[in-house]
Design a protein that fits this description.
By secondary structure, the chain is an alpha/beta fold. It is built from ten helices and five strands.
Length: 264
């Protein structure tokens, strides 16, 4: 089974969670979803038990809208045409939209998924029979599985507590999302910091009040960018951020948040 939250219209999600419901809905996937909630990652997870022959438009859009997809591969994942369609769509979005993908292997070997061996071999033998008139469809599933399993992911077969693994996966996903949210700002901040250094050098070589004011204007702009970076990391809605427009509040927030996020 796959992902998408079960309600009509969900809060805007960041992560799409794909999984085989019969294998992990009430166990690993539910624990992983709870870990995502604890770190405030909005996740699209589909608990709908009714499945049609084709993947729904709602799920396709949910995959497209996600910044990152987590695929929980399990022993019977390969038996689900729906799950395989999701993986193909996810890998398409990785290519066309730059979507990040994190594979997780639960109760199955990565090599079984990558090479369609073990339980995946029997599943694909049935798919080959069912879609004899559409061999290209099955091959695209195979290619998508191979591409997904070649990505850096998580193998849950190691001797670790499941509670520890889901927390580490949640932390990894959060860090990846944060890089997406602030990557553009990090580049802009670095550019303005370099510019500020040049301005300071110019002021020191030819002291003039205007040169100092230009430098201070750049420094203030850098502070605003850094505050916006912190806002994004904290997931603070813009309408709750209006008090930062006040210059005194600006400095207070900057000093406090700089301390909190100095290492981020």
């Amino acid at each position: 089974m796959a992902s998408s939250s079960s309600t009509n219209v969900q809060e805007r999600h960041e992560v799409f969670l794909s999984f085989r419901g019969e294998d992990t809905r009430k166990t690993f996937t539910s624990h992983l979803h709870a870990a995502f909630k604890r770190v405030h990652i909005n996740t699209y997870i589909d608990y709908n038990l009714e499945r049609g022959d084709e993947i729904s438009g709602t799920l396709l859009r949910a995959i497209e809208d996600a910044k990152l997809s987590v695929i929980v591969f399990s022993k019977n994942f390969g038996t689900s045409k729906w799950c395989l369609d999701e993986v193909k769509k996810i890998m398409d979005c990785k290519k066309t939209r730059g979507q990040m993908v994190v594979p997780v292997f639960y109760d199955t070997e990565p090599t079984h998924v990558r090479n369609q061996t073990g339980s995946f071999a029997s599943a694909f033998a049935r798919h080959e029979q069912r879609f004899m008139d559409r061999p290209n469809k099955v091959q695209k599933w195979r290619d998508a599985l191979t591409e997904a399993t070649n990505l850096s992911g998580w193998d849950c077969s190691i001797d670790r507590l499941e509670s520890e693994i889901v927390e580490e996966i949640a932390k990894d996903v959060l860090q990846k999302l944060n890089r997406v949210y602030v990557g553009d700002l990090d580049q802009e901040i670095a550019t303005y910091e370099q510019y500020a250094r040049h301005q300071m050098g110019y002021f020191q070589s030819t002291p003039h009040p205007d040169h100092w004011l230009d430098h201070q204007a750049t420094v203030n702009h850098i502070r605003k960018l850094q505050m916006e970076r912190h806002r994004r990391l904290l997931r603070i809605p813009p309408n709750m951020y209006s008090m930062a427009n006040d210059s005194n509040a600006n400095n207070d927030f900057y000093n406090i948040w700089s301390t909190i996020f100095r290492s981020s």
